[in-house]
Amino acid sequence: MAKKVHAAPGRPGRAAAKTGRRARAIVAASTAAVALVVGTATASGAVAQEGTAGSHASRRIGAPPRVPAGATVTGTTASGTTLHLSVNLAPRDPQALADFVTAVSTPGNAQYHHYLAKGQFASVFGPTRATIAAVSGALKAAGLAPGKVSPDGLAIPVTATAAQASHAFGTGFRNVRLKDGTTDYLNTSAPSLPANVASSVTGIVGLSSVNTVSSHHSAVRHASKNVSAATVSGRGARTVTPHTYTPALCADFTGSGLTDGTDYYSPGKLAGAYGMSSSATAGAGQTVAVFELENVDAGSIAAYQSCVGTSTSVSHVYVDTTAGAGAPATDGSVGVESALDIEDLIGLVPGAAVIDYQGPDAASATDQNVLDVYQRMVTDDQAQVISTSWGECETVESSATASAENTVFAEAAAQGQSVVAASGDDGSSDCYGATGSTAKAVDDPASQPYVTGVGGTTMTTSGSTTTQTTWGNASGGTGGGVSSRWVPVVYQGGVATTAKRAVPDVSALADPADGYPIYYQDDSQSADPVPGVIGGTSGAAPTWAAAVVQANAGTACQANGQVGFLNNALYTAARSSYPTNFWDVTSGNNSVYATGYTAAAGYDEVTGLGSPKEAGLTTALCAAKGTAATGAATFHPLSSPKRLLDTRNGTGWGLSSVPATKPLVAGGTAPVKVEGAGGIPSSGVTAVVLNLTVTGTTGAGSLIAWADGTSKPSTSNLNWTGAGQTIAASATVKVAGDGVVDLYTSSTTHLIADVQGYYTSGTTGSKYTALAPARLLDTRSKVGISTSTKISNAVISLKVRGHGGVPTGATSVVLNLTATQTVGGGYLEAYPEGATRPTASNVNWSATGTTIPNLVVVPVGSDGNVSIYVHGTSHVIADVSGYFSTSGSAFQTVTPLRLLDTRQTTALGAGKTLALQISGRDGIPSTGVKAVVLTVTVTGTTGSGYLSAWADGGSRPTASNLNWAQGKTIANQVVVPVGSDGKVDFYTSSTTHVLADVAGYIS
Fold first, then answer.
1. Could you give the angle at which helices 298-308 and 336-348 cross, rounded to 10 degrees?
2. What is the reported pLDDT for 225?
3. For residue 339, with 0-12 CB atoms within 10 Å meaning exposed, 13-18 middle and 19 or more buried, which class applies?
4. Residue 749 contacts by C-beta under 8 Å, 6 or more apart in sequence?
5. For the chain, what is the mean pLDDT?
């Protein structure tokens, strides 16, 4: 356990970083005990093959640990050193697990809040029995004695000597002396296993004993005015007189000369600041678990309960240790973290039960011990909320440990457990305590994707006014920044516009100058527990845990299910009603050891979304389940397109009251609210027709659109080939039960989404009739217009009704618009004739000589015409493929699926036709299908060309659906009739690969 420094009077100090750790029993051998295996390590979670081909070839797993900064190698680890390991297995289908967590966390999804039952994880998502047997067999064959697999099937324990582990995993071991004098061992290479089982293993934890896990709290300040802990001496017996519960505290604090709300926050004052309830039964019926790596002083907990007037149940579970083992909690250092965690919870949710999960002392705990405690907390599945105030710098932690933790926390989310973690007390330099580095870094597990990271604030109350700023000064500050390990997460899309996961998610009181009142044991001061005031993000984490416990205990969550994985709900609440649900912290920074991050309006890497406003937040966290609209749908065109998203100016981007103007980062996701926006109804929408535009592209990339809360499909809706491009494509996207669609881009770009219309279940809208594609306009050859010159900054009046098979009763028409032989940059806009020209474009180009198509659904003017405005100079082509009217067929959505990819076979040759089976695939009926909605993409183009799509068995039309120049990748949505045999045909005029992704069908 880290020894704590005492604070100077009037300025609470921080706990010293992990000093005084007991040296582990590691002996340096005079000669090398094992030979080093040379191999190529890959990035975290990946494997690199080495050895010979065949089932017995070896593969290395993950990457070797890095020698911590400031550490020195002292020799080879003795061959007889005992290692306690776990071979950690991947879930049987990691993507299915991730999708399930998303589903149970998304209102409107059929699985919303239908969590796994206790003990169900192993049979649903754990590795198969065959996988476990194969890995165990490989370990035995390597001379090891694997133990019984964990209850969730994710870990196989192994105890071995360094020599045995070296032989089994193909790695050497060496000793290192850390900068605090501690001697540890670590493996010299990434471990290897036979290739036939290596892919089932995410990592092997315990090959390194380097562990810098520490608690995130300050030194304790004595509970008396202008008296520091350092000035208190002598041992005198004292007692705390029990009294009936009130939100206030006993005389040890009220009579100390310190002011509640200025020098410390009593449970009542803290609850009031955050809108939480204060009663002896708050949290009744709920269980919250705390993670600890030290002994708990029962006397201190009892003294606090007497002071507050509570009788909260506190029980203990020991993992890799036993009751009474380890350093006693009597020196004013050991036991302080556990006292803060447990007593904070007792004060805020006295009606809940608290379970202390205790591992070995932090001074001697290994990564394996840490993982064992978390795994036990999750597999026990006794607590709805898990709080941890311990962590280590993300870049110091091994990839094997991080990967194993990630799966355990995903398991917690699948079971409906909320996990909150302190973000650290070293500001933006989380590695400072472990390595002395002032570089930007964040803390694990706060940075884990399935964990809610909690930062810290300074708070002061004067009368009825409470102010809150960032906690950050020379003595410590809130941890926060950007992960170096985890990719952007969907729930932070548009809120934290960073290249990877941003931390923290939220924040709460942490400044020790106005911190948490506790009792702790310090034998140098008294034979009995003494009152003190303490801070750090170690206090903020259990405060947020209490907020979640109170939400779970409320009537809304009792009706709709416990919160479970917190982050999806938190960021959704922030997007919908930020000021109502969160207390935004807008001043201060976390520049403790180096320039860090600065708080600002909205989300920041200092205090996250801010502190809770419990009343509004509970409503959001415990949202009603809702249902997604399904079944046959009819179409409702908008009189003019409405812009739902524009990352350039913050439209639909960021928080409800704090728009963002940064582009969508590579690998990021933009959640777009559809229902209730842009004139779309607030419910009953099955799909939406969007015009999607990327602009300011930074490199080649692709865009995927899909229903929020469902699995991201392996399809695409829009593709681009380089930087500086502006390109658009239409997409028909299924709408989730929460009324949101997600947009993902593989490279950084600004993104625009304009809605053209929407489908609803029922018969109130228009139905679709497919036509054989027909050309209504071609300015190159006087089709539909009297000129053959390019159009420059002018409006084309296009007759639609009575042409190309479009009847007089058509209300909207589906056109494929193509700009070709362009001059400079420009765009096309299509709208009903007689209406005001919209501000949204349909086709965009950015260079001379471009040929670019896009599908549009546009209402027909009262005169039977549509207008096409040309901004810039271009020839224009318009092909009709269908129309909407009171007669026709309804639309059905499907889960996006790739039906065709010639890259897996051979390119479609010039002048060749390919027939694609539609009916009977991806939930599409085998009969009765009139038309299909596809996104068709050409890539690997060998020359300029075009693609035409039509119903199999019919004649190839003269109209085209896609046009391209050599080397371009172009996508376009098509609505194409389906032949009587259930097929559609594709013709390409030049050799190219063709991809086809289905979005729905007309039947």
1. 30
2. 61
3. buried
4. 663, 664, 694, 695, 696, 697, 698, 701, 720
5. 90
- Does the pLDDT of residue 752 top 90, yes or no? yes
Structure tokens at 255: 């009579």
Report the C-alpha gap between 235 and 369 in whole angstroms. Answer: 36
Residue 230 DSSP code: G
Tokens standing for residue 609: 């979304």
Helices H / strands E in the chain, number of each: 16, 52
Distance in angstroms (rounded) separating the CA atoms of residues 185 and 178: 10
In sequence order, the 6+-apart residues with CB closer than 8 A to the CB of 456 are: 423, 425, 470, 471, 477, 478, 479, 507, 508, 509, 510, 511, 535, 536, 537, 539, 540, 607
Which tens digit of pLDDT belongs to each residue from 58-108? Answer: 999 988 888 877 889 999 999 999 999 999 999 999 999 999 999 999 988
Percent of the chain with pLDDT over 90: 82
- Over its C-alpha atoms, the chain yields an Rg (Å, rounded) of 32
* Strand-by-strand arrangement of the 685-695 sheet: 727-734, 685-695, 750-761, 633-646, 891-901, 993-1002, 931-939, 970-977
Contact (Cβ atoms closer than 8 angstroms) between residue 799 and residue 806 = no
Q: Of 603, 911, 891, 619, which Cα lies nearest the Cα of 759?
A: 891
CA 285 to chain CA centroid, Å, is 30
Report the alpha-carbon angle 734-739-743, nearest 5.
Answer: 60
In which order are the strands placed within the sheet that holds 443-444?
Answer: 214-215, 390-393, 443-444
Backbone φ and ψ of 615, nearest 5°? -60, -55
Query: What residues contact residue 583 under an 8 Å CB cut-off, 6+ apart?
Result: 274, 468, 610, 611, 612, 613
Biggest alpha carbon distance in the chain? 104
Q: How do residues 196-230 score in pLDDT, each as one tens digit?
A: 999 999 999 999 988 889 999 988 988 876 444 33
pLDDT tens-place string over residues 340-357? 999 999 999 999 999 999
DSSP state of 5: P
For the chain, helix, strand, coil in percent to 5 are 15, 35, 45
Distance CA 289, CA 266 (A): 22
